[in-house]
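Give me structure tokens for this 219-residue protein.
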Amino acid sequence: MDMRLGDRLLLSLVPTVGAAWLRLARATMRLRWEGVDTALPEDGEPVIYAFWHSQLAMMPWMQLRPPSVIPISQSQDGEWTARLFGRLQVEAVRGSSTRGGVTALRGMVKAARSGRDLAITPNGPRGPERVVQPGAIWLARLTGRPLLPVAFAGRPAIHVGSWDRILVPVPLSRGVFVYGDLLWVPRDADEEACAAVRDHLAARLDDLTERARQRLLIR
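Here you go.
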């Protein structure tokens, strides 16, 4: 990646500061989990965590087992995100629905076959907001792994000025993770069936996000 000196300095600084901020926020957060007991498959097989892109900052703590593998775009913003997550012990496969998607999909399938959990933002990296793109469904169909819908809500929080206003928690905040039921995509699912799963996943994620927000109102 051909970058100017200022860009290289930012690339080394932003992920380090961002990771330190998120660690501090997590360490001082009053955090609750809902649906954990039934979230993972009884046979212990890997899952694909699915969550809206706006909740990406808390992804490292959505995991219920050792670190997952997540696709990150090949853009400069993606490079910052990949390096930040690397400092939080999350492995990135570079590529997204808008750039390098085939490479990313192959990397994710390979990780799943090696027994790793996966993570994906079904509407990312550029939206539209709350619209599930085909990539998450293809990944579930190709790997045979179930999608595990999960949502996070936190307050107070900063909302970064991106297309979906990513939620960034602050120290001494409160947070809630809510996990939904596993969702499988048959390997022989046709286009119509995949479209139905996309709609179903979007509805689940919206419902879980609202439930997480409501839980924050209960002290």
